[in-house]
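### Sample
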Amino acid sequence: MSDGQWWTYLQAQLEQRGWKPAHLARAAGVSESRISDWRKRGSPPTIPNARAVAEALGEPLVPLLAGAGLLKANEARQSLAAYSVRELLDEIDTRFGELTSRVPDANVKHPTFDRGNSLQLVADSPGTEPMRVQQEREWLSEAERPDEPGPDTGA
């Protein structure tokens, strides 16, 4: 890592968020003098400090270290073969849990055939045929459509 690359990365992150170094110090629980060392001396962070900064910025640790030049791209990204199936499933479970925690707990309506559900067969109107019947009719090609009644059909 070149001198100051960590600070260059941090400075871009701070500017993106509209933060001052003092705000990062409070959010990460890192002393302002430590942040000053990163800026003036170009010194890299310790792993605990990098972890605290990543958490404060809401960034995953490994991509943060790679973006700051503390890890090479090939060190930061391992092939999936490097992980056990259990590790991959645990990661999927963790990410799914994080995503579902952001979904509101309000009652969610799903389209059903119940007449009381306002989402019943979306776009169906009372008094008209169901949308699925209309769609099935549209799917028929010209060759599959029945002939119109008229003099040629004997009707």
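The chain has eight helices and no strands. This sample (Helix-turn-helix transcriptional regulator) is used throughout the tutorial notebook.
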